[in-house]
Amino acid sequence: MTTAGLTPAPAPTAGPVVDTVPVVSKKTPIIFGVLTVGMALILLFEGQSGETTFRLAARTDFVQLPELTVPTMAGAWTLTVVCALLTAESVRRYLARRRTPLWLLAVYAVAWMAAFLTWAAAGESVPVVGLLAGSIALAVPLVFGALGGVLGERSGVVNIAIDGQLLFGAFAAAMIGSVTGSPWVGLVAAMVAGALVALVLGLFAITYFVDQVIVGVVLNVLVIGLTSFLFSQVLAPNSESLNTPPRFPRVPIPVLGDIPLIGPVFFRQTAVVYLLYIAVALVAFALYRTRWGLRVRAVGEHPKAADTVGIKVNRTRYRTILVAGAVAGMGGAFYTLVSVPQFNREMTGGAGYIALAAVIFGKWDPIRATLAALLFGFASNLQGVLAVLGSPVPSQFMLMLPYVVTIFAVAGLVGRSRPPAADGVPYRKE
Amino acid sequence: MKLVLRNITKRFGSLVANDRISLEVAPGEVHCLLGENGAGKSTLMNVLYGLYKADEGEIELDGKVQHFTGPGDAMAAGIGMVHQHFMLIPVFTVAENVMLGNESTGFAGTLDIDAARERVREISERFGFHVDPDALVEELPVGVQQRVEIIKALSRDAEVLVFDEPTAVLTPQETDELMEIMRQLKEAGKAIVFITHKLREVREVADRITVIRLGKVVGEADPKASNAELASMMVGRPVELVVHKDAPQLGEDAFVVKDLRVRDALGHVHLDGISFTIKAGEVLCVAGVQGNGQTELTEAILGLQEHVEGSVTLDGKELVGRSVRQVLDAGVGFIPEDRQADGLVGGFTIAENLMLNRSFRSPFARRGSLRIAELDEFAKTKLEEYDVRAPDIYTHAGKLSGGNQQKVVVARELSRDLRLLVAAQPTRGVDVGSIEFIHKQVIATRDSGVPVLVVSTELDEVVALADRIMVLYRGQVVGIVPGDTPRETLGLMMTGERPKDVVA
Amino acid sequence: MSGTDKTPPTETEDKATEDRAPEAPEAPSRSHSLLREIASGNALAGVLAVVLAVAVGSLMIALTDEEVRETASYVFARPADFFNALWDAIWGAYTALFRGAVYNDRVDDFATQIRPLTETLKFAAPLIAAGLGVGLAFRAGMFNIGGRGQMLLAGAAAGWVAANVDLPTVVHLPLAIIAGMVAGALWAGIAGVLKARTGAHEVIVTIMLNYVGFYLVFFALSRQSLLQAPGSGNPKSAPAAETAVMPKILGDRFNLHLGFLLALVAVAIVWWLLNRATLGYRIRAVGENPHAARAAGIDVGRTYVVVMLIAGALVGLAGTNQVLGTVTSGVTVDLDAGIGFDAITVALLGRSRPLGILLAGLLFGAFKAGGFAMQASEGIPVDIVLVVQSLIVLFIAAPPLVRAIFRLPAKEAK
User: Fold this and answer.
1) Mean pLDDT for all residues in chain B
2) Which of C34, C341, C380 has its CB closest to that of A221?
3) Which of A75, A100, A123 corresponds to the end of one domain?
4) Is the pLDDT of residue A10 over 50?
5) What is the mean pLDDT of residues A170-197?
6) Nearest C-alpha of chain A: how many angstroms from B197?
């Protein structure tokens, strides 16, 4: 600092920042390590004997993939070693100040899960197709709910009321479906019901600036009370006419449905599931590629800036959450028009909260949120399958998984998540 | 396009923010709207831009009366605004920001991002802006962000351009560039409204000047008028730009900072090994454009920053690594730059705010209980002593004016037994009367033998208070110079250049 | 605003509005803006909110009543029938509610007549305790939606001590209560620690902890080695030992037990904490403006942890109240009986102030006691109480809406 004369300023870069030491999270390698060691410990202290079989095809499949049988301990140990190698690779990348790429994460997840299944299903055979197809079935309402959540929060409205939207959608689908005898009308009714809950959310959160978390929580309670009351007073006594909705039939898609493994899992489903695929693609496209999406995101990030370019902030938010509510409502319809052919009190069992978890775990992105919801669906289905196989893991711990994972996620242990900047902040003009 | 505002009146409850303000701007003309913070300039422009609805008065463009219901209408009519706080979405690209609200679309509402890119390039080239349409706005320097704002307005074919306090966040160099841009726009036949409270800039570009005070037009001024004339019009009485103070009675090197280095959680370095010393009884002012490490410096001293290396000693005791509470207990008084965010609890009463950093021990706490009688007594005394204008000590701090809020903060900090005073932007957003009062308090503190560190982006304040001046640029010390260094030299230093005769 | 001798707007007004009006400062955090919203609503709006919610409840009762619907089909032929049926349905419901919650005029002896009132107090006790837990967290700017999980953990811990430890009453009961409160505190403390350490939003964490807690307790209840009653196949623990049961405070004819007195003590302690203690001062400072609190040397993270510990202990008290007082036959996974969520509405209605929570708890306790009576005598599902309760909170939170509905003049803007 003592050179005389005009010291030239350093080349201009962003802001006053002098230089940057890249920060690479060490969380991923740590988590990999912990999980690998955990797996090894399980194998060491809770060893199983025998062989494990993976059934890769459903009995009705056109192409029959052979069954895969491995000796339990050898197989599980091999996979654990693979996990260890992947962990080492992650550590190496961390030391080289590079991130762990997504593919590594995916490979690790599959390897670890395979190791776990090999151990847990010792002496049994794992119906892989059933496991995956069942996961989809359990995930459908979650994905719809998560999409609704992503849409709402991207526009700046925190949607804790997903559960209420699912539940009210389920109720409306059951009742209107029963009355009209058409599952399609029931589905539309569910969408209207979901949007209705969203409308109330909007009224309080957008128009009256009431805290969005509170409105959401209270709305959930309100919908539980309302549907339970109406269930006891109206549906239950007239179960024949009001609570026997028609079900959507399974419609296998030709060709696609015959692909081994993938076909039976994804393409032998009901119309609602196909609608889900469309919805995911549509939401992702609309959010990032259309004028509507640009405005929604603008309103969720910096409502005042949007206002100054002539975008009606609150109108945009209302529209978005109404769409979001309708999407979540479709998820509700899945309960009464596909899963169980009748409405029951509190039948969503808090799925809306898992959907909310998926939104956060998926970093407010429709595709990632969908993947998170699928993961949660897989976890709860895995629990069911393991219970049937008589696995050594208590089912409660499997059921806990989505919630525990979410806690880790929000605690930043699995990567930083950055919500839309104006999420949850009502917009006041003056 | 000719803009005429006629008798615009805007009220907020009982307050009249704009009282029958009239204004005319012709194409090819820069019309300056000069006024203090809070004079009602921004309110007027928000009316013009359709963000507020005027209670009375008319807006005319080329002789036609306009009825704006929102910014969309104003933009469609040809008014563009460069906001003081940029109205840009940080996570969007330049092109996305420029097209927002004015998107060209293809099939089914698909965005035509290429068209937007092209538009950005075209305007950027015409005016020599050098803006990359695909850069993320949050990664651009402020000066460039401002150009994005201008492109945004121009891309909508604005004929009237409003610049609202555009230089507040710019370096002197960037300010010069902006002045040049304004001249260019003027040449291109745009009508320009330039809102500011900085006299030098006004005299540089203005063709006409309208001065407003307390929501009313005080009169028109000649661009050739002297600073003192303009200033007295602006504040309504001759302003005392100088604080009367005696030569400092310097003591020991009480406060010593050595190789201070501050990073944020993302690894960005905000302070890169700075060193300085303040003697007992001395005021050291830190000058520099906002965002060059000043905030981090004060926060690092207080223990509010996480990643701090180097050494900060007060009377020989190390402060780095201590908790905020330990630092405060060591006798550091702190006036934060944003009093509403960091200095006060808006929902607390004045009395409660006065004990904010003293809740752990006597006189206001004893064995875990509050001593409310003592606190009330203390608050009443301070209310009087510091001339805080409030109904009583139970008034919520959030309900006070900026000046009175700041006096509460100053009262709290100065009524402790101080070994060091750190004052960041002590008079930002404060009325003239309170500025004088606060400046006197700072000097009085110095004269009681306490080292004082003042951070300010206002050169006037720096020059008024400093015994010595330290200029920060991009996290480094450009130089430490005597308090009477000419403004031109300081301005140059704020761009990171060190004049020959200055030794670091 | 004309003339020459107008006094210029005082500098106070000028600056204050300039600061606030054109660019309203961002609400510091979600919860406060709501709390302020609630606090600024006047008492009338509060009363009207209750009236409105009850009206909606009445409408639902009327619309779903068999007789009302029957008479409605020939309402034009014999309107009197319809209106009689309407009146009967609503009047019947609310008198049943009153008889179940306050005073039963249909029995002879005084003790039985006032029995409903003691039932109300019994139901109110856990609502008050848990409401304090939620409300205290609110004051620190935190949302404690984890009441359910905290009650479950507390109930499980208290239930274990109650069933598996052999001690005299004077020691056993306090020990069981403390065990429960500690368990609740630790469970809530997780959310506090995560918020303090990593910034994890407590809303998400507490919601998730509800489920984790549920499955954890479920797991413990299905393991003989942990909580399950010996020799039982059901997920239920052994009943609490006599020595760990909260004594009935009005004799055996009434169900009212010690829990209510403990709830009152909790109200007093929380009141003192918030209004007279330095810790409470810091809690409020952190809740109102964590940045300023931090700059003033208050350890914000630690305050979050401490608040969640105390809040969890209070909710835990509600859990022990259930296990050691109200249902002593053994711990089950539904011991929280919805109180965890009700507590949120109680805290909101009580504006997070201890005395307000006391009153709100009593009101909702009365709803509960009366709701069960209403279900028994009139066949109206008790769920109606949930509806009315949540509507009250919604209306309370949006006074402008209530004013608009009743066409009251809007409050002065400033």
Assistant:
1) 88
2) C341
3) A123
4) no
5) 96
6) 23
In a domain, B247, yes or no: no
A404 contacts in chain C (CB < 8 Å): 208, 212
In a domain, B243, yes or no: no
How far apart, in whole angstroms, are the C-alpha atoms of residue B124 and residue A316?
31
CA atoms within 13 A on the CB side of B33: 30
Give the residue from B319, B206, B339, B190 showing the smallest Cα distance to B260. B319
| HSE (side-chain half, CA atoms, 13 Å) at A326 | 11
DSSP for B280-313, please give it. TT-EEEEE-STTSSHHHHHHHHHT--SEEEEEEE
DSSP readout, A257-323? GGSTTHHHHHSEEEHHHHHHHHHHHHHHHHHHHBHHHHHHHHHHH-HHHHHHTT--HHHHHHHHHHH
pLDDT at B187: 92
**pTM for this prediction:** 0.84
Q: Does ipTM surpass 0.85 in this model?
A: no
Residues 6+ apart with CB under 8 A from A51: A69, A70, A71, A72, A122, A123
* A384-423 residues touching C, CB cutoff 8 A: 394, 396-397, 399-400, 403-404, 406-407, 410-413
CB atoms within 10 A of CB B228: 12
A60 lies in some domain: yes
Distance between CA atoms of residues B387 and B366, nearest Å = 29
pLDDT in tens, C64-107: 888 888 888 888 888 888 888 888 888 888 888 899 898 888 88
**Using 50, 70 and 90 to split pLDDT, how confident is the model at C112?**
confident
**Region A251-267: what's the mean pLDDT?**
85
Query: What residues contact residue B330 under an 8 Å CB cut-off, 6+ apart?
Result: B314, B317, B319, B322, B419
The CATH number covering residue B336 comes to: 3.40.50.300
The token pair that represents B354 in the structure block: 């006065």
> How many domains in chain A?
2
Taking the C-alpha atoms of residue C191 and residue C318, their distance in angstroms, rounded to an integer, is 19
Range of the domain at B299: 253-494
| pLDDT digits 0-9 by tens, B436-458 | 889 999 999 999 999 999 999 88
Chains with at least 3 CB pairs less than 8 angstroms from chain C:
A, B
Q: Model confidence over B382-394: pLDDT tens digits?
A: 999 998 888 899 9
Give the Cα separation of B274 and B504 in Å (integer). Answer: 11
In a domain, B320, yes or no: yes
Pick from B391, B465, B415, B412: which is nearest to B435 by CA?
B465
What was the pLDDT predicted at B239? 54
Domain interval for residue A276: 130-388
Rounded Cα gap, residues C42 and B119, in angstroms: 54
Minimal Cβ distance to C17: which of B17, B46, B323: B17
Considering only CB atoms, which chain C residues are within 8 Å of A229?
Answer: 60, 64, 381, 383-384, 386-387
For C274-301, write each residue's pLDDT tens digit: 999 999 999 999 999 999 999 999 999 9
pLDDT (tens digit, 9 = 90+) per residue, A108-126?
Answer: 988 998 898 888 888 888 8
Q: At what angle do helices C300-320 and C147-164 cross, to 10 degrees?
A: 60
Distance, CA of C101 to CA of C329 (rounded, Å): 24
Q: Is the peptide bond before B363 cis (omega within 30 degrees of 0)?
A: yes
Looking at residue C42, its pLDDT comes to: 55
